[in-house]
Amino acid sequence: MKIDIEFFASAKAAAKTSQVSFEVKDVKDLESKLIELGGQKLIEIVKVSSILSNGKKIELNQIKEDSNIQILPPFAGG
Fold first, then answer.
1. Is residue 13 classed as helix, strand or coil in its secondary structure?
2. How do strand 50-53 and strand 67-72 relate by DSSP bridges?
3. How far apart are CA 22 and CA 34, in angstroms?
4. Is the pLDDT score of 21 beyond 90?
5. Which pTM does this prediction carry?
């Protein structure tokens, strides 16, 4: 399945890019691609981030074919 991901804040810094597209078989494959991209640090950030798909909050295991995903880490400040 094709997945387009947009990274923000610390996820963007860990991924060293703001956007990426992957062709993956399943969520485990997606996690492997994310590790290749940004190492364990990126996976740790993704696990605590809000994940949006078409404006709705989802879990990583809910990603579907042709999804446009935004990874929004917790923001600091007030």
1. helix
2. antiparallel
3. 9
4. yes
5. 0.90
Q: Which residues contact 59 (CB under 8 A, 6 or more apart)?
A: 51
Write out the DSSP string of 25-74: SSHHHHHHHHHHHHHHHHHHHHHHSEEEETTEEE-GGG--TTEEEEEEPP
pLDDT value at position 67? 86
> Do 67 and 4 form a contact (C-beta atoms < 8 A)?
yes
**pLDDT (average), residues 21-44:** 95
Cα angle, residue 72 at apex, residues 44 and 20 outer, rounded to 5°: 80
Q: Quote the CA–CA distance of 22 and 31 in Å, as a whole number.
A: 11
Residues with Cβ within 8 Å of 26's Cβ and at least 6 positions away in sequence, in order, are none
